[in-house]
Amino acid sequence: MNLDAVVVGAGFSGLYMLFRLREAGFSTRAFEAAADVGGVWYANRYPGARCDSESIIYNYTFSDELIQEWTWNSRFPEQAEILSYLNFVADKLDLRRDIQFNTRITSAHYDEVNNRWKILTEDGVTLTAKYFITGVGCLSASNIPNFKGLDRFEGEAYHTGHWPHEKVDFSGKRVGVIGTGSSGIQAIPVIAQEAKHLTVFQRTPAFSTPAKNYRYDPDFILQTKANYNEIKEQIRWSKMGYLHTVVNDRSALEDTPEERHLAYEKVWERGGLGFSQTYNDLLVNGEANETASEFIRSKIDEIVKDPKVAEKLKPSYYYSAKRPVLDTNYYETFNRENVTLADVKSAPILEITPNGLRTSETEYELDVIVFATGYDAMTGPLFKIDIRGKDGVSLKEKWANGTQTRTYLGIANAGFPNMFMITGPESPSVLSNVPVSIEQHVEWIGDCIEYLREHEVETIEAKAEAEEAWSKHCKELADSTLLTKVDSWYTGANIKDKPRGFLIYVGGVGEYRKICDKVAAKGYEGFSLIHTSSKETV
Ligand code: NA7
Fold first, then answer.
1. Is residue 323 in contact with ligand 1, taking CB distance under 6 Å?
2. In the predicted structure, residue 30 carries a pLDDT above the cut 90
3. Per-residue pLDDT band at 190 (split at 50, 70, 90)
């Protein structure tokens, strides 16, 4: 099969990319390893799975019809509701006829003689395409630490990112959850209600603030739909793709302790991810950050009855430097009689045993282990495919050879002509409301491919110097924040032997959009374009 474009993935990215290119008349096919649409929302079915972005902005904005015809139920959408939404989109836009499910792309090699990508599927089928576009997500390559004895466990074991479709029954069972990031913190309160006993194995405590979820009022929905153009403009040009902005546009240190307390209390009560926006310097000034961190620690003291448990739950790093978490009754769960907190920082997990697990201190008998141990973020999903550009150099080799992954705009790579990444490393991606970033990428890539057709361009490739400058810019921006001062999946520190680097553009989605638009307006500045006829390089 020879196509104009192959798109990998049928989540938020792949679905829209397929639609965008098909509408422009390009023969396009999407390949999805799972049995249906949804991407991470197809896979993350663990109890309590919910999005931390507010529903009304966690959707596509490109089609007024989609906006008007879909209605969200509550402020923070549950996994099942998001999955229904993506199914609704796939049906409405008639996308399934161009998606091949249950098909993993295993390799994509660039053929320099014919200027085509040669793409291989797991079942041995070869395709060729002019453009190779990845929509593989940033947090889709799950990570289970290589614990000794992992395969000897005789009970049930699940990773939150690959949850079974049938309901997992915890009743009457001794359950262990390893990991207290977003997934663990969402799952723990729900599992605790059902399990006979739940042990939470915590290595690093997370800062969590209340989601304060509620059902939407029908009038609010009507108003939202009527004003959607305004909402769309606001999120597209915002810092992080959200509606909330900095609550107090000054340093936290300009307020008195009493004023600060009131400010934090107000934003805490409001719920949602806006807590990090209470003041404008919480992510850049350690002293200011400490005031927010201390406030959350004081809340843990207030909520958790056993002071020793409360102490263990308090993080000591900068609030929001690791991904901040939203919860519903997380800290409260530790007041339940059937819940125990095990600190596996001071007493690490040594091995998984047939009946549970053993730490350096004691042995735990478990019927079920839930691995909420996260993901090989950003680069992990791309490395699952053997992607090779010019001279047979793989993306893995290119990125692993240096100490830092390099891309141009998070969209393209020098040495990999006619390949585009949706929310690739060094784009705003996971530091934004992701669908906003996805739409911007898809539209930019779609416009670019149309431009190439119109101008009879055979290949487009990022220039090495443009890539170098972009990576440097990303690094400088990140280094000016507290985000690089703490080990996290943002920096790659959660994966053994992964080169450290901060692989997200932190300048904001609005600023990023301006930069990308400028690059396009200048005839794709920073890219080499080779024309079909003349072989001329621009
Ligand atoms: P995260 O946020 O990476 O959390 C993973 C958790 O698992 C975290 O608490 C880790 O502790 C813990 N972990 C990882 N390895 C181990 C070992 N070996 N022993 C004990 N504990 C371990 O993943 P999530 O799935 O919760 O969230 C990912 C993102 O998905 C989330 O931020 C949203 O954007 C959506 P650590 O902190 O490394 O000490």
1. yes
2. yes
3. very high
Model confidence at 537: pLDDT above 90: no
Distance 221 CA to ligand 1 centre (A): 35
CA distances from 273 to 43, 210, 325, 479, 489 (A): 23, 9, 8, 22, 18
What is the pTM for the complete model shown? Answer: 0.97
SS percent in the chain: helix, strand, coil, step 5: 35, 20, 40
Q: Is the CB of 184 under 6 A from ligand 1?
A: yes
User: What pLDDT digit, counting tens, does each position of 271-296 carry?
Assistant: 999 899 999 999 999 999 999 999 99
CA–CA gap between residue 374 and residue 11 (Å, rounded): 19
Distance 132 CA to ligand 1 centre (A): 31
Q: Which long-range contacts (CB under 8 A, 24 or more apart) does 283-286 make?
A: 283/320, 283/321, 283/481, 283/482, 283/483, 284/480, 284/481, 284/482, 285/251, 285/252, 285/253, 285/482, 286/318, 286/482, 286/485
ipTM of the complex: 0.99
| Residue 320 CB–ligand 1 contact under 6 Å | no
Closest to 206 (Cα-Cα) out of 345, 110, 336, 404 = 345
**Which DSSP symbol is given to 497?**
T
Phi, psi of 65 (to 5 degrees): -60, -45
Say whether 103 sits in a helix, a strand or coil.
coil
pLDDT, tens digit, 9 for 90 and up, residues 130-171 = 999 999 999 999 999 999 999 999 999 999 999 999 999 999
Say if ligand 1 is within 6 A of residue 182 CB: yes
- Number of Cβ atoms within 10 Å of the Cβ of 171: 8
| Ligand 1 touching residue 349 (CB < 6 A) | yes
pLDDT tens digit sequence for 301-310:
999 999 999 9
Average pLDDT, the chain: 96
DSSP state of 216: P
Compute the distance from residue 372 Cα to the ligand 1 centre, in Å.
6
What letter would DSSP give residue 118? E
